[in-house]
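Page 37, top half.
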Amino acid sequence: FAPFEWRLAHGRSLRLGPAGLLMAIVNATPDSFSDGGLYVDPQAAVDRALRCFEAGAAILDIGGESTRPDAAPVSASEEQDRVLPVIEALAKASDAVISVDTYRAGTARLAVAAGAHIVNDVHGLQREPDIAEVAASTGAGLCIMHTGRDREKLVDVIDDQRLFLDRSLAIADEAGIQRDRITLDPGFGFAKGTDENTELMVRFAELSSFGFPLLAGT
């Protein structure tokens, strides 16, 4: 796909295209579906993230609240206690591009101050819209994810992507976020069954109509 310079916080950028890049997911949580409980200790999370970076991951995504179905919510302070020490340590130990997985404006602001370059919002700016202001004011790269949770979805998977993501992009535009700081994630598995996920994969190319790079986590 056509090369795209994704501009990030702290004067960093990533060259996307013609090949894709890898984002490594490290969850500093006890209950995430993929690695819950393995990296609750901050040093364990840092060590894991650095191993991923050395193995070729271009982005290290650090999360402090599980997004698996029916996961128990955590407070903002608990989320911050989990992710901020990891982000600070990674920023000192490497030149890796760091992403914070959060929908909270307060966590996003503190994470960027601690060294994060990207804000990855699994609620697409629609749970705490002030997070868009944080991204705009800090110059962070922004990943806007589609979700079907807590709302009525359209039957057609691409129509529903457009319905949700158009709303998210309007929030980003209102906050003054520049287009070269945005990527979109179709949100595989987020209130999507096997049939929906499969159809979304088959029709993935239709998402290029948005005009943004795409992040896919299957």
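Page 37, bottom half:
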Amino acid sequence: MAKQNLTPQTKARRKALARKPNLALTGREVLEATVGRFGIPEKTRTIRKTSDITLNFKRHLFPEQLAFINDPAKRKAALCTRRAGKSFAVSRYLIQEALDNPETLCVYIARTREAAKRILWNMLKQADKQYRLGIKFNNATLIARFPNGSEIIFTGANDSSDVDKLRGAAFSLAVLDEAAFFNINVKELVRDVLSPALLDSDGTLAMISTPSEVCAGFFFDITQLEKYGYSTHEWSIKNNPYMTQAVAAIDRDVRAGILNPTEPSYKREYEGLWVKDDRSIVYKYSDVNLYDELPENCFWEYIMGIDLGYHDPTAFIIAAFSDDHEELFIVEQFKKKNMLTSDVEALIREYQTHFNFSKIVIDTGGGASRMVLETFKERTALPIEPAKKSGDKVGLITMMNADLARGLIKVKENSELTDEWDKLQYNIAGTHEDKRFDNHLSDAALYAWMESRHFLYEEKVKAPKFGTAEYYKKMEDDMEERLLRQQDEEEGHDGDLWGIGYSSEDAFYN
């Protein structure tokens, strides 16, 4: 190109313009200034591409969180400490699943609906604002709908009615948060509700929680006993780079003596370890309370304790005691939900044919239970009585624990009753049982124990072994006692007063 010839005046004008600041704004600068003052209008919000959001996720998540999210396993679990960032990771996991799979349905399940809203609902709103995702939030139903048609449902699983609401849906991702603390049976929730709901899309089930003080349950089996083939992950607050100040504060409290690293609560909360805290366990049994077979060659008396329910299980406990043993043996146990009055009556009759109960005790906590009890008594003519209630249930349990400690109560190992005992604990105040855990068989066993008479057992003096020194000593003592008794009888007889008596032949004298 030929060099342009400029006049001296043109050159001077261009030099002057170059020295002035450029006041023109780019479109991006105008947008940022507008948003900073007025916010983003709903109709003009810019929706970022999925690839951009994924890049941002990698920038904000630390390696342990990313490893959990990117794990291709269809069943996975994460055991974490407090403040380890598990809920933050779950929020990003749900968002990524919803973005990557249009028209998909995800579910986040906490212990209660209120907990789901408190823990993750607002966190999702913050992510929507940060990444400009265009999510529409229905605060009444707790459903977050994405522009591509995907939805995330937030719900709780506090009882069977909450669980029933999840039946029939089809999810690509289901997340259980604080899975070690659910009130319901998590294994049943997974087996009967979530696994079928994940079949259509071969979806993923992810469970995440801190360890609880009860070293039992489905999440414990997965993360500690490595059952059911789950891919497990672990990380703590120390792995969270955003919690360095919190870690320093914990160390400071340890040095000050406020926190004790040897206590079970510290190991669970800050080290992510399964450590059982027996102080909160309601029924304290041990190996001394376990038995295999009921002793033979003695007469057994049977008692049945019943804890009535419908949505909650109706529980049956059959216990046996004998004059020959000081222990109370739990010989049968059964519980089932949704039992009708006729079902309970039929089962009582069936058990009666096998055990011939000396007493049947039924919980009459409500008016309906009392009506059922009176109906059973009238129809069956069986020895049915109301369970003796006390205003001090904790005191009764303490007395039963004393029998457990002495080995005076025997139960089968790995039974449903011991499964309840492993989990059942008191509330924080120690005044009542924690409602998160089943106590139906436990209550039925308590009723049966209260009616048992095993405490009347008296130890029988065993005869000395034949041929021993004790054996011959006992023979001498017995002979001496008989001679003394005979002498007393002879010396105490006055013939003049009482006569000479009669012989056996006089009985036939005519």
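Margin note: The two ends are 168 Å apart (CA to CA).
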